[in-house]
Amino acid sequence: MGDQQQPQGTSIGDSLKLPPGFRFHPRDEEIITFYLTFKVFQRGFTCIAIGEVDLNRTEPWELPGKAKMGENEWYFFYQKDRKYPTGMRANRATEAGYWKATGKDKEIYRVTGGVAPPVIIGMKKTLVFYKGRAPRGEKTNWVMHEFRLEGSSRLPCPTSSSTSTGALKSSSASKVVAALAFMHPCILLSLLDLI
User: Fold this and answer.
1) For 148-193, how does the pLDDT look when each residue is reduced to its tens digit (9 = 90+)?
2) How far apart, in whole angstroms, are the C-alpha atoms of residue 121 and residue 37?
């Protein structure tokens, strides 16, 4: 029995061994409901599958090395930086380039079931990484989906007993976002604006 080998899995830290074939692939609603909401409203919340990065100091090709798991997709939390101290525009520049928003933001709903209408809980923004400086940057095949709280998700999490003041909640809700980054196989394919 001592010589029998355990199935090979992925080790995260020193405590978790995952079985072969395990994938972390939450739906948009799950990212908002079970991860981002708790990250914003529960002090000290961590997730074994979602790392944390400083997006302005991390190039996209460095993201896989900073991820907690994932082969082709990597999930992160990060705090949005403002381009100007008193402005609302996000700073998404890195040393080598910048993330540029593309297309319209997509609303994310929590389906309540029954007769109640779906409730908006977040937004998803798609960004593409460009090498160089705007407006002459060169488009790459790095894509990121940035998730932010919106609507009812900006209210305090009902199960969160470790949050403090409303000011902290409002401040956190406007800065913390979750992101899914990946390298798209096609170069031609075309992670907060809250107060």
Assistant:
1) 998 765 555 544 444 433 433 445 445 788 888 877 653 222 233 3
2) 9
Rounded Cα distance, 135 and 96, in Å:
14
**Encoded amino acid at 16, one letter:** L
Give yes or no for a contact between 156 and 37, defined as CB atoms under 8 angstroms apart.
Answer: no
Write the CB contacts of 49 (distance below 8 Å, at least 6 apart in sequence).
12, 24, 68, 69, 75
The mean per-residue pLDDT over the stretch 118-128 comes to 93
Q: Which residue ranges make up each domain of the chain?
A: 24-183
Determine the topology of domain 24-183 in CATH. 2.170.150
> What's the predicted TM-score (pTM) here?
0.76
Helix or strand or coil: residue 168?
A: helix
3-state secondary structure of 50: strand
* pLDDT at 191 (0 to 100): 34
- In this structure, are residues 118 and 109 in contact, taking their beta carbons and an 8 Å threshold? yes
Amino acid making up residue 181 = A
